[in-house]
Amino acid sequence: MAPRVLCVVGPTASGKTKMAVALARRLNGEVVSVDSMQIYRGMTIGTAAPTAEEMEGVPHHMIAVADPAEQWSAARFCQAADACIQDILSRGKLPVLAGGTGLYLDALIRGDDFAPGCQGGQTRLRLQQELRELGPREMLRRLEAVDPETAARLHLRDEKRILRALEVYEETGEPMSRRDRRGREKPDRYQAVYIGLSFRDRADLRERIDRRVDEMVRRGLLQEVQALLAGGLPRDATALQAIGYKQFLAVADGTATADQAVEEVKLRSRQYAKRQLTWLRRNPAIHWIYWDKEPDFPAALQNATDFLTAHGLG
């Protein structure tokens, strides 16, 4: 039987960190962050990475493990995070996966076998050049010739996906559709039990997000961006394209005011939360706990504990 893991999921600002820590303490667990931006050092404020105080002595993994100048693919993230999960299991503890990057979480649970190819790789660069020269229609026509199933799902606007499917075929000699089908037929690497957190009223979630952004600014989000730039981080680094960093980079450069940046960060964060919920609601296995306007954490923790006990994790 596949090893068991606990996943604490939900939109941004829903309380995942606090719940994950509390459940890890109760269940002899360690937390693995599944957040595509918390991996970067020097980006604690804008990514809402847990502080030492918030960790409450519970070991956390996959936080501040990468230089912000690096660009991590889903494949690289999953390889590193999976090594953490295996280490936790080998010590007889429960991996508690917490975070909002749904693509990464799903790939970790399934144990996806990522096809070769990467940003900046030789094949990718050549295909990008051919796209510029020949246009998306010709690239999609090429894909139709080697992988009609994938091509049928894509639109001319899906340029990145078209190039990725062509890259997979050129690197492996196998259509992406066949690889995906084989992956779906393979049993999951981990047996996951899910706790989901959100607000009963969407307006309360929006208000919570706005308050979190205000707190990030109060704690020094602009100064964090300035420190990254002072450390030599290029302005076009992937890390600086994240919500919060991109907007306050404009403040640092003098092309936006702090007030403009705050409003933009709030808007982008609310939109991101909506996308997260859309992704998560496709998973019928999630046990949802909904907060009222003022969250009752002890009641929610008991709710989660009762559910996990019923599923053999209590």
Automatic annotation (TrEMBL):
Which reactions appear under catalytic activity for this entry? adenosine(37) in tRNA + dimethylallyl diphosphate = N(6)-dimethylallyladenosine(37) in tRNA + diphosphate
List the molecular function annotations (GO) for this entry: ATP binding; tRNA dimethylallyltransferase activity
Q: Where does substrate bind?
A: 12-17
**Keywords for this protein:** ATP-binding, Magnesium, Nucleotide-binding, Transferase, tRNA processing
Q: What does this protein do?
A: Catalyzes the transfer of a dimethylallyl group onto the adenine at position 37 in tRNAs that read codons beginning with uridine, leading to the formation of N6-(dimethylallyl)adenosine (i(6)A).
The record describes its quaternary structure and partners as:
Monomer.
Designated name of the protein:
tRNA dimethylallyltransferase
